[in-house]
């Protein structure tokens, strides 16, 4: 009896597909887009691109773009990051269908 009660009160994330969750009215536009992207690409991988140069960042995005749904960047550690890098990265993301998440450290814990 307890298991049927638990199943009936399960959180929607446990019982619905990514596509079904994307269609919920409570999903923000960005969340809905990401959930649809995960469903289409059949991956929920996010890669953290901890590289030092624009060339490495762009090569990494090109290499793994088909297999990820999010690329987490750290533009502040890329020594030669510029507008051309940003445009090239956006172009790769559009072509390979992944989101870019910039992880800036504006107010991060100073001692870590």
Automatic annotation (TrEMBL):
Keywords: Lyase, Pyrimidine biosynthesis. One of its GO terms (molecular function) is orotate phosphoribosyltransferase activity. One of its GO terms (biological process) is UMP biosynthetic process. Residues 43-112 form the Orotidine 5'-phosphate decarboxylase domain. Signal peptide: none annotated. It holds the Pfam family OMPdecase. Pathway: Pyrimidine metabolism; UMP biosynthesis via de novo pathway. InterPro entries: Aldolase_TIM, OMPdeCOase_dom, RibuloseP-bd_barrel. Belongs to the OMP decarboxylase family. PANTHER family: OROTATE PHOSPHORIBOSYLTRANSFERASE, URIDINE 5'-MONOPHOSPHATE SYNTHASE. This is Orotidine 5'-phosphate decarboxylase.
